[in-house]
């Protein structure tokens, strides 16, 4: 079945550092890929998404490229801020899985001033 | 953008009581709503998929008699935790989807934190 694997956290960075959170997936067919962010005590917010191979999703300085050849959707940001501290979830959804969203385990990011 | 609300945001109840959580899509009609449970520092676990006017579809291992879901309209779904016990304490999150490909456009509520004493 479909699954998502993302790097374990926590990830601790200094402000203005470069961020990469790795995400790989296993899926039948051509799923859509997502990154969600969860701030402390809140629900999930869609950060960005990509619906087909080679698409790049971007939002608020974050970006991720749908790489079918490596089945990856790594999240990157060139310069993180303290306000980016949150938990980031990689997810996928596709026809083969009945369009249910499958989430990765989440990666907690701490950004220090 | 599409907004999904949940009520209450936080609830504390005694063991053995029932708790109802509401999920509303405020500015759109949702063909499907999903209920998730999130344990501390863990990912979201899909509990059930709810379609307006029909019975919810529960994931394996989720007790349908304990977690009652009612999807009364295209803007409201409710989750009732019946005879709650301390192990039911968790963060419950709903999401609402539009369009035929529900997984493509899913909007999440802010979550409800349940504490059973």
Sheet having the most strands of chain B: 7 strands, mixed
Structural category of chain B is mainly beta
Q: What are the low-pLDDT stretches of chain B, counting only 5+ consecutive residues below 50?
A: none
Percent helix of chain B: under 10%
The radius of gyration of chain B is 13 Å
Radius of gyration of chain A equals 13 Å
Oligomer: heterodimer
Q: Sheet with the most strands of chain A?
A: 6 strands, mixed
Q: Based on Cα principal axes, name the global outline of chain A.
A: globular
Beta-strand residue fraction of chain A: over 45%
- Principal-axes geometry of chain B comes out as globular
Q: SSE string of chain A, helix = H, strand = E?
A: EEEEEEEEEEEE
Overall strand count of chain A:
12
Number of helices of chain A: 0
What is the count of helical runs of chain B? 0
Most extensive interface, residues per chain? A-B, 22 and 21 residues
Residue-averaged pLDDT of chain B: 89
Protein model, in words:
The complex is a heterodimer of chains A (113) and B (117). Chain A has no helices and twelve strands. Chain A has 113 residues and is mainly β. In chain A, the strands form three sheets. In chain A, strands 2, 5, 6, 10, 11 and 12 form a six-stranded mixed sheet that branches. A four-stranded antiparallel sheet of chain A has the order 3-9-8-7, with no helix packed on it. By secondary structure, chain B is mostly beta strands. In chain B, 0% of the residues lie in helices and 52% in strands. Chain B has no helices and eleven strands. In chain B, the strands form two sheets. In chain B, strands 2, 4, 5, 6, 9, 10 and 11 form a seven-stranded mixed sheet that branches. In chain B, strands 1-3-8-7 form a four-stranded antiparallel sheet, with no helix packed on it. In chain B, a hairpin with a 2-residue loop joins strand 7 and strand 8 (76-81). Chain B is globular. Chain B starts with a strand and ends with a strand. The model of chain B has no long low-confidence stretch (mean pLDDT 89). The interface between A and B is medium-sized, with 22 and 21 residues.
């Amino acid at each position: 079945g479909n699954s998502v694997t993302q790097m374990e956290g926590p990830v601790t960075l200094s402000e203005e550092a470069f961020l990469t959170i790795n995400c790989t997936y296993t899926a039948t067919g051509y799923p859509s890929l997502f990154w969600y962010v969860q701030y402390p005590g809140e629900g999930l917010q869609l950060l960005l998404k990509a619906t087909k191979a080679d698409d790049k999703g971007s939002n608020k300085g974050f970006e991720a490229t749908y790489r079918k050849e490596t089945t990856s959707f790594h999240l990157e940001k060139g310069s993180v801020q303290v306000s980016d501290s949150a938990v980031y979830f990689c997810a996928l959804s596709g026809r083969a899985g009945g369009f249910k969203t499958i989430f990765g385990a989440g990666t907690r990011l701490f950004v220090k001033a | 953008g599409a907004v999904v609300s949940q009520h209450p945001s936080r609830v504390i109840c005694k063991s053995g009581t029932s708790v109802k959580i509401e999920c509303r899509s405020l500015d759109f009609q949702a063909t499907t709503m999903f209920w998730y449970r999130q344990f501390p520092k863990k990912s979201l676990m899909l509990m059930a998929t709810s379609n307006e006017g029909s019975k919810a579809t529960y994931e394996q291992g989720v007790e349908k008699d304990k977690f009652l879901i009612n999807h009364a309209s295209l803007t409201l779904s409710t989750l009732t935790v019946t005879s709650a016990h301390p192990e039911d304490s968790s963060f419950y999150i709903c999401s609402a989807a539009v369009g035929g490909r529900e997984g493509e456009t899913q909007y999440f509520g802010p979550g409800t934190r349940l504490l059973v004493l």
